[in-house]
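Internal ticket #5521
Category: modeling
Description: The requester needs a full-assembly model to guide mutagenesis choices. All entity lines are attached below as received. Residue total reported by intake: 627.
Assigned to: D.W.
Attached entities:
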Amino acid sequence: MKQDVGFMRMTRSPAPAVLGPLLHKPTLMRVLDILGPGRAAEFLGQFHADLDSAHQTLRATAASPEARQRAAHGLIGLAGTVGASDLGDAARRLHAALQSGDDPGPKDLADEVASLTACLMDEVDAWRERSGR
Amino acid sequence: MARKVRTMSTSPATRPARATTILLIEDTASLQIIYRAILERAGHTVHVAETAADGLALFRDVEFDLVVLDLILPDRDGIDLMQEMLGVRPDTRIIVITANGSINKAVEAMRAGATEFLVKPFDDIRFLDAVRHALAPGPTRGPRLRAAPAQDNAVPSLPTQTTEATSGTFIGSSDAMDRIQSKIASVATSMATVFITGESGTGKELCALAVHAGSNRAAGPFIALNCGAIPQDLLESEVFGHVKGSFTGAIADKPGAAAAADGGTLFLDEICEMAPALQTKLLRFLQTSTVQPVGATKPRKVNVRIVCATNRDPLDAVRRGLFREDLYYRLFVVPIHMPPLRERSGDVLEIAKAALAHFAAEEGRAFRAMEPEVAELFLRLPWPGNVRQLLNVIRNIVVLNDGPLVTMDMLPDDLVPPAGKWAGPTSVAGPRPRDLTLGRLVGKTLAEIEREVIEATLASCGGSVPKAARVLDLAPSTLYRKMEGWGGAQKNLA
């Protein structure tokens, strides 16, 4: 799994083998335009760290349902920020399932959300490398 | 513990007529960075806190014009915090933001005193619109019903105004829009059910709001529910509510959208996506005007006007067995078809000009007009995303450039497809990924047919498993398992 210099190293979930791009580049560009060059780098670093934090929570076997629900809740907003609607939809389904006490049903769903989160981190890394940000 | 608080100054170039001081309480750091930047670009002074405790301490120290509050905080429930803030300063205007966009949560927040309710994710336009609305003169509390553009907001939300060029009304003097306006005026005052059809981005929700606003129940609530965006197993509870203890996780009574719309209008968007079982219950609701929350023993009478919408052909959904015929005839009382922008002749320029003026004022740009070449191109383009696409294009131009004239080189690269690709109006049906006639499939095993269908669907979804899974009504994990079983087949799609 590719690791990026400058970000926290991590053990990631295996990414799904076949997947279209999650990152919607026009949406990301719009966000970076709003932030301006000064804050764009700060945002990208923090965005990656927030994704990683949620990813680790979803992967942690000891994580409580409440912690997973908070992670899913956070991912809905994070995914939407860069137009990653597939991740946002999956996180929303997981959040709803955990909220309604649907247990242990969300295990597959939590794995799917974690995998999509890992993919998005990879895409952000790759995009940063290409764009030199 | 040291407070995690940051304050940034405003840019004089973008300072609003009256600078405001805003407290932003959001625990996700990257979202905090974005929200803060959006507010500061609009000229507001922003103080940021990551926890409820820090936010409350700041709130006690500084008199804020507005609080933007995330409902899910690490140390305390957001509604609880909001109530304490309102206890300290009852006139405070508070925008509640959350990724949990259920009607129940929205109603709870508004009843607790929120001025606005925003569902994540939201873009800068919607965010600043909510801020402006919250800061506008008027009562500080209670539901200022506004509307979430149906667009990307995949969760139900309290309705907010979606406008053609953010003016609150339809813009355009084409014959098609004249007919729509007349029809809305005629039907608004009746109780008849309105069924709105039209492509995405044509303004179906705006039409529904106009019907509500013109009715004698305009003072009542307008509740919008996106039937296609709510997990099917939650939809019944969202529409009809539930009582405490009726199922695992039902920790409190919940009114449901139908009860929340009592005395007003219930807008059911993407109605054709509703599951068959719920269609039966909706039909019963329409016949009896009563709602029976999940787990309740007695039905309750409500007075609700139904407006529904779809971007599909509803009769085709009936023919294909996706939509109940009796429900179709119950709902399809007064149809209103929102025309695509390409059929609204000169409206595209009227909308573009209004949007240009609005966004230029908002962004502090000097745009005044468009070059004739740009106007001619706008008239020729098919606008498959309709008004929503046009507004996005104008917004893009204004943000990335400065005026006074919009020139050809300012247009987004992807606006004009290669020559010959859009000679005529675009089909909304989309290309067929592969020839899947029945005759060709005869003689193949069921497993082979299944694989062929899955591969074709994946190809049509650009290789996205989650999207293909949605089309096939499968869990993505199921799709992954099937693909693993095929071995090397995935390589062909990567």
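Resolution: model delivered.
Comment from assignee: Chain A touches chain B through 47 residues (CB under 8 Å).
Ticket closed.
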